Amino acid sequence: MSSVLSLNKTRSRWLTFGLLALGLALLPFLVDAGLGRSWVRLLDLALLYVILALGLNIVVGYAGLLDLGYVAFYALGAYVYAWLSSPHFGLHLPFWAVLPLGAALAALFGVLLGAPTLRLRGDYLAIVTLGFGEIIRIFLNNLNAPVNITNGPQGINLIDPVRLGSFDLSQPHALFGYTFTGIHLTYYLFLLFTLMVIFISMRLEDSRIGRAWVAIREDEIAAAATGINTRNLKLLAFAMGATFGGLAGGLFASFQGFISPESFNLMESIMILCMIVLGGMGHIPGVIFGAVVLTLLPEALRYTGDWQRNLFGHVYIDPADLRMLLFGVALVAVMLYRPAGLLPSTRRRREFADAQG
Amino acid sequence: MLTVSGVSKAFGGLQALSDISLQVHTGEIFGLIGPNGAGKTTLFNALTGLYSINHGEIRLNGQRIDGRKPHQVLHAGLARTFQNIRLFAEMTALENVLVGRHARTTSGVVGAVLRLPGTRREEADSRERAHALLKRVGIAQHAHRLAKNLPYGDQRRLEIARALATEPRLLALDEPAAGMNPAERAALRELLLQLQADGLTLLLIEHDVKLVMGLCTRLAVLDYGVKIAEGTPDVVSRDPKVIAAYLGDETL
Questions:
Q1: ipTM strictly over 0.85?
Q2: Mean pLDDT over all residues of chain B?
Q3: Nearest CA to B78 among B97, B103, B110?
Q4: Which terminus in chain B has less CB density within 10 A, N or C?
Q5: H-helix or E-strand containing A168?
Q6: What is the pLDDT at residue A1?
Q7: Strand, helix or coil at A267?
Q8: Alpha carbon of A345 to those of B36, B133, B148: distances in Å?
Q9: CA distance B28 to chain A (A)
């Protein structure tokens, strides 16, 4: 009886999984046909933000360390990619070598920046990490003299796209009778990395390490008295979060082909934090949802100009202004009516599954 | 088991502990009593590495544990509970106990992500032990409830289960019976006696005189950070200094 039940459960799970996979595979084509090519590009960006948000979620959501300088790791990943894969230094290493390097360097900086902040909590930690984030950005802005490392505010251009042998991901390719453009192919590459990051996050959440992080978030003193080496585990959280940030940075550099310090300002850090808070801190589906919504919503609000023209026959408020206003209102509304986030973490589902199995 | 020699701790000008020495022998239930503010919890915090001490030394089974970090003290075999319950509120009872297994398990990030055979075994073993511990303290039915939603007495018991999960040799309990009703107290008493019978050494701060007198093998009494008496409950309860500390000095 129970074996039949569990067989049904496995089958329905695979069915859901299959449908989800099919949906994700077709998504760029549906979006392309329905909304246009620029939205496929946005989809690519949304995936990048999912990676970033899940990375920051480890630091803020699990370990409870309010990090406002997260974008620094994103920047490091991007610059490592740019240094090793562009005419700037004349290096053109393959992406599969550069991406891990960028992620590793970001992890190292995660530990370096995390170490001095170990005694700090809450607001104080937020202020110091904010400072670190700005320091990295200002370094990137100014390291163009006496030796030109970052090319300063002009940024680095002509960054190599992702290439596997002779297969250039930025060029259109005809496969199975269909033409895949660069942004379609990029979508699949980013999707692959995003799924990997989701997988790692899920596995970590339900593990010895994940529980230790949550314990530190809940009560650091009790966690230490229960045998958790809080220093090492906090550093591990910073390193893991930074790794995902560095990975996203590398992908971003290859995707844009151009990076400058301007892309890595404080607003980015705040935006990624908003994604987590708005979606549901510490809850993977919530964080993914928050990242997708906050990437797409500001773009969707660009259409407010068209709406005005249709309604009143005239554009009264510049959509660029109205867009940020509505965005702010949306944020405030969510925090008022769903303070725990749009998809808050409910442990009930897991409890239910545990009680049955 | 535990040897405290000449331990002093001052907070600025306040001498919280002065020259405290005491010995807890293997297998006994050692009581630590004294009026409010006598320094009992301060001594607990000093023992478990939350406070650094100014003078003296603390040894657990001959190994020095003063000057060590809380998690190192726990590794050495001294676990504790807190007077004002400190559970991981947003975690289930089971997860709280699983956190207690952290110190005695080793799997890391790679093991967790790849679910290596060793990690799976360790995780299964931890879960089994955690369930057994919840049953042992009598809250198995609450395994999947959030710690913050448990009744008060059960929260205290969960804290004991979490401490036991760390496989301590000495368990220090800070007012475990506080806020419990008589039935819960009786159950707690049974549990502590069982733990003693299993070979665990217990160090107990408690205000409930009846519980302390009935349960403890020996007692130490603190007053204003000074140890004023030590011995069996019988001897201590007749000590004039102890009576003065609790009831006030007749000459005043």
A1: yes
A2: 92
A3: B103
A4: C
A5: strand A167-168
A6: 46
A7: helix
A8: 41, 27, 16
A9: 22
* Nearest C-alpha in B relative to A282: B90
Helix (H) or strand (E) holding A167: strand A167-168
CA distance A254 to A95: 8
- For residues A296-334, one letter each, b for 16 or more C-beta atoms within 10 angstroms of the residue's C-beta and e for the rest, the string is bebbebeebbeebeeeeeeeeeebeebbeebbeebeeeb
Nearest to B103 among A200, A204, A227 (CB): A227
Structure tokens at A45: 């960006």
Range in A61-70, A73-82, A202-211, A317-326 the model is least confident about = A317-326
* C-beta atoms surrounding A154 within 10 Å: 11
The mean pLDDT value for A303-329 works out to 80
DSSP per position, A184-220: HHHHHHHHHHHHHHHHHHHHHHTSHHHHHHHHHHH-H
Lowest mean pLDDT among A80-84, A172-176, A248-252: A172-176
A3 within some domain: no
Q: Do A211 and B95 touch (CB under 8 A)?
A: yes
Pairing, β A173-175 against β A178-180: antiparallel
Considering only CB atoms, which chain B residues are within 8 Å of A204?
Answer: 109, 112-113
A116 occurs within a structural domain: yes
Alpha-carbon distance of B33 to B19, in angstroms, equals 17
* Span A235-253, average pLDDT: 96
Domain that holds residue A292: 38-297
Within 8 A of A223 by CB-CB distance, chain B residues are 88, 99
Contacts of A347 in chain B (CB under 8 A): 92, 146
In a domain, A338, yes or no: no
**Do A203 and B113 count as a contact with CB atoms less than 8 A apart?**
yes
Q: Does the pLDDT of residue B249 top 80, yes or no?
A: no
A261: preceding bond cis by omega (within 30 degrees) = no
For residue A231, what are the CA distances in angstroms to A23, A115, A210, A212?
Answer: 42, 8, 15, 11
- Nearest-CA distance B126 → chain A (Å): 10
The pLDDT confidence band at residue A232, using thresholds 50, 70 and 90, is very high
Residue A284 lies in a domain: yes
Task: Using the structure block, give the residue that is written with the tokens 């949304």.
Answer: A46
In this structure, are residues A216 and A63 in contact, taking their beta carbons and an 8 Å threshold? yes
Chain B, residues 29-68, CB within 8 A of chain A, namely 48-50
The total number of structural domains that make up chain A? 1
Strand partners, B203: B30, B172
Q: What is the CATH number of the domain that holds A258?
A: 1.10.3470
Which pLDDT tens digit goes with each residue over B63-95?
A: 999 999 999 999 999 999 999 999 999 999 999
The total of other beta-carbon atoms located within 10 Å of residue A8's CB is 10
In the chain, the amino acid numbered B67 is G
Check CB contact of B100 with chain A, cutoff 8 Å. yes
Residue A352 has pLDDT above 50, yes or no: no
SS3 content of chain B, % helix, strand, coil (to 5): 45, 25, 30
